[in-house]
Amino acid sequence: MNFDLDILERIYALLPSVYRIHDVEHGESLKQLLSVIAEQVAVLEEDIAQLYDDQFIETCAQWAVPYIGDLIGARGLHALTTTAFTRRAQVANTLAYRRRKGTAAVLEQLARDTTDWDARAVEFFQLLATTQYMNHLRPTNLYAPNLRQWEPLERLNTPFENLAHTADIRRIASGRGKYNIHNVGIFLWRLHSYSLTESPAYSIDARRYTFSPLGNNTPLYSFPETEDKITHIAEPINVPMPISRRVLHEYFDTYYGKGKSLSLTVNGGDIAKDKIVICDLSDINGGVWAHMPKKKYAIDPVLGRIVLPENLSPNPSVTVSFRYGFSAEMGGGEYGRAGSFAIDSESSENVPSDHTKIQDALDQVKNGGTVEITDNGRYEEALTVQIDAGKHIELRAAEKQRPNLVLKNELIINGDDNARMTLNGLLISGSNLRVSGKLEELHLRHCTLVPGLTLSIDGTPEQPDAPALIVDSEKTTVVIEHSIVGGLRVGDGAEVRITGSIVDAVTETSVAYASTDDKSAGGKLYVENSTFIGKVHTVLMELASNTIFLSNLEQSDVWKAPVLAKRLQAGCVRFSYLPWNSQVPRRYRCQPADEHQGIRVRPQFTSLRYGDAGYCQLSQRCALEIRQGADDEAEMGAFHDLYQPQRETNLRVCLDEYLRFGLETGIFYSS
């Protein structure tokens, strides 16, 4: 708590003046005693104030939420301590739920409050193709859709469709049937929409640009508008969805502009909507883009591409603000990271306000300090970091920023004895990092070292075999937290500790972890709640917990096993997936449980290409042994801390109470 000096002054002022004068003459020892008493008084005052706040669900302490819930009979839910979800919203809205019990609106709000995901409830009996009842006509419920109306066809087979269907007799609870009299569907969006503001667009040539700072295609996502009424049924603008070309064209004012889903700025000026057209800028023969207008700006939201008009001055400054889809706060972005900062320093070398180049700022902090990048800019530099003995340097993005460091060559981090280096919130591409000298620790927090170093426009890694990090020093400890990195090459004297991260060697037969020669055993490895794509060879696997090793061998491979530990008598692998023929220390409740289960329980992902919205997200077709195979029954892998199985269980527990008699619900994931 913060000590309140006013309390001390109030208590001290109650003493007679003669005692205060005498106390000042003797070093204020009495005042120091009263400061201890005042601190306890402040604690008591705060506790008394909190007792009043604890009577209301909106202001009570977290420990009081289940007690208030018991008073109104709210059902208990899984406590998900590492996510933004709490029971507070569910308890606060319980009475409102019961007043509207059985309606689609309350089912939708219940899904949102119990899972912390955006949701939409659909009454499928409203979409059945039936003979019209004359006392209850439904003019829009047409068996044959009107092909002249674009929006019903655009929303076909989505949670927002309104076209009629014939009856489906399969059960909705199995996730197969939908359209029947007693069916209600709950659609959930697991992906979130993350912003990138005033970021330099990537230039392909004089007229062609991409929204992505890496130059790859990326679908643009909508900025979900918050629903302010419990009776409101979610619409497309209320959920994080990719924006189609037709939707952006028809609802341009809804999605385009400052503070909305996307905006475009050229040479410091905002581009007006009447100067923009929505086009299909797909590739045609020879890499040429289709439908490039000559006099207007063109935007393709599906591919994230931009075309400038022909009459602009050379080398224009093009910046974009847009939103992209991803599963979690990982790899850097415009989300809160202040709690992960290593150096809490009021004074720092800021880029670009104090220095235009990062190297100039690093040269000023050789004896320790912070270099903070305060924008989402693109910095193309050749960087070298030299750290004096016993000093600590942190190179980080400012809060709510994600700059792009494009390395012209290796970023060499050289440190003397007991030196430390921290990288936080950075998107690094172009080349790899190399650790040398006697550096004691390297921390990567909320960073992305692009797998394959650079990406082609279709997202294919251009250097798939190149490692992202090389550790030449013998006694360095590398700590990777909430990051996305390419392959690691670590000397056998170093140590790597990975938590909540993705290590992606691009393919499962490439080398994700090994020594600097790509074959020998890399340094000691400790990994929790992470996903590896590629082969792993380590001296000692100290611990692997709740981790997926998606590894395989080529037919002519010289490796003995896809996941290989040199020392088998020490270490442990628990609650993880790794190929059956891996050579690792003792396994505890790992998958596959036997050789015959290998194909069935093999992890399945929405996508394994970095840059896709569903990158490394477990597919719903994935076996339950993987989706609920962690030590706490959450999913294995990098997104373990999202507790997605527990969120779904929370929803299923609550649905029975608020569902009308005779109806049946099914849960569907829209992303």
Report on this model:
- It is a single chain.
- Among the domains are: 5-53; 192-326, no CATH class; 338-590.
- The protein has 13 helices and 39 strands.
- The strands form seven sheets. Strands 12-13-16-19-22-25-28-31-34-37-38 form an eleven-stranded parallel beta sheet. It has an eight-stranded parallel beta sheet with strand order 15-18-21-24-27-30-33-36.
Brief digest:
The protein has 13 helices and 39 strands. With 671 residues, it is α/β, with parallel strands linked by helices.
First-to-last CA distance: 42 Å
The general outline is globular
Instruction: Provide the spatial order of strands within the biggest beta sheet.
Output: 12-13-16-19-22-25-28-31-34-37-38
The DSSP helix count reads 13
Structural class: alpha/beta
Q: Layout of SSEs?
A:
Blueprint lengths: L4 H9 L3 H9 L3 H25 L11 H8 L15 H5 L1 H6 L4 H12 L2 E6 L26 H5 L28 E7 L2 E9 L1 E2 L4 E3 L34 H6 L1 H4 L7 E4 L2 E2 L5 E3 L18 E4 L4 E3 L10 E9 L22 E3 L6 H6 L5 E5 L4 E4 L2 E4 L4 E6 L6 E4 L3 E5 L4 E5 L2 E3 L3 E5 L3 E5 L2 E2 L19 E3 L5 E5 L2 E2 L2 E3 L4 E5 L2 E3 L6 E4 L9 E5 L2 E3 L1 E4 L2 E5 L2 E3 L12 E3 L7 E2 L12 E2 L35 H4 L16 H15 L5 E6 L2
Parallel strand pairs: 2-39, 8-9, 12-13, 13-16, 14-17, 15-18, 16-19, 17-20, 18-21, 19-22, 20-23, 21-24, 22-25, 24-27, 25-28, 26-29, 27-30, 28-31, 29-32, 30-33, 31-34, 32-35, 33-36, 34-37, 37-38
Antiparallel strand pairs: 1-2, 3-11, 4-5, 5-10, 6-7, 6-11, 9-10
Helix pairs in contact: 1-3, 7-13
